[in-house]
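Worked problem 6 (solution included).
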Amino acid sequence: MKEGEIWLRSDEDHDAFVHQVLDDLIACARFLGWDMITVPWRHSLRPTKKLDDRTFLYGDENDWFAVYRYHPETDVFDCVDDTLKRQGLKAIPRVVDATEQSLKEGGRPVGGAYSDFEFLVEKVGSELAVASPAGFIAIPLRTEWLETLIEEPSLVHRYLNAVCEMNLIAMEETAKKGAACFWGGGDLANESGVLYGVHRFRTFLLPHLQRLAAASRRLQVPYFFRTDGNIWSIASILFEEVGFQGYGEIDVDAGMDLIALRQRFPNLILWGGISCGKDLVFNTPQQIADTVHFLLERLAPHGRLFFGSSNAIHIGVPTENFLAMTQSVRQFRCRLIGSY
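Solution. The predicted structure is:
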C-alpha cells in the first residue's frame, strides 16, 4: 500500500522509496548478523489510481484490471477484485498469450525482484550471500486456474512452458551476477497436501522442475524449492527424483517436521525452523528459546541448515519473540563453535 501511494506521486519518489526499503533491509541484516539476504516482498506494479484510503486500482477498469486492498487487522495487501474473477475461464487465454509474449519480448521475468537483487548484490554481495528470485514456477492457486487444469489443460501447459523458459534465462543472468542460491519453488499445497494431486503435479509441473534442477546443477548454484503446506506426498519426487538441493518455507504447522526431514533427506539444505503462524506468535520468549535449542541440538551437527521463521516475520509476531529466536541461534552458534 505504501509503495502504491508513493508511486502515484512520481517515479522519482518511488525510486527513493525502493532504495530506502533496500537500505533498511541491509541495515537490519547487518545488525542482526544474518548470513544471507533475500529480496523483499513488494508489489512492483504502479497503480492507476487510489479508490479510497486502503484500496488501489491497477490497470484499466474497462479492459484488464485488479483491485488491491490493505487489511490493517492482518497487514495483508491482496486482490479483492480483478478481470479473472469477473470473466472466469474466458480470461485465461489472454493471460497465457501475454506470458508467451513477455517471453518473446524480454526473455525473462520482469519486475522489482530482479532490480532489487542487482541492487543487493552491488551493495552487500561481498559480505552477504544474496538469494536470486529466479526459478519460481507455479500453477496459480485460483479457482479459474484449477478449473482450467480440467477444462483446458493445454493452456496450463503453454503457460508453464513460457514461465519455465523465462526462469531459465533469469537463472543464467543472476548466476553470473553472483547468486548464492535460487529461491524458487512455488505454492502448491495446504495442510492436507498438494491441492491438485500428485498425478497432476507429475503431469504439469514435474517436467519443468526437472529443467530448472538441471540448470541449477550446471550453474553450480543450489535451488531451494519453497512452498507452504504438507508436501510429504511429493517430497521424494522433489528431493530425490528431481534432486533439488534445498527446501524453504518449511511449514511446520502442516506437518513438515525438520527432524523427520533431516532423517529422510540427510543431504537436503533446510531453510526454516519455527512456525510463524503459531510458535512465534503465541509462545513466550523462553518457549521459543527452548524450541531453538531443541532443534539445533539435533540439526546443527549435520549442517545444511539456515535457521529462522518457517515463512516470514509478519505483523503478528511480537518483537520480543523474534529477538528471542535470533539471540538463541547466536548463543547456540557461539557455544557450538567454542566446543570445537
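Discussion: Residues 270-340 form one domain.
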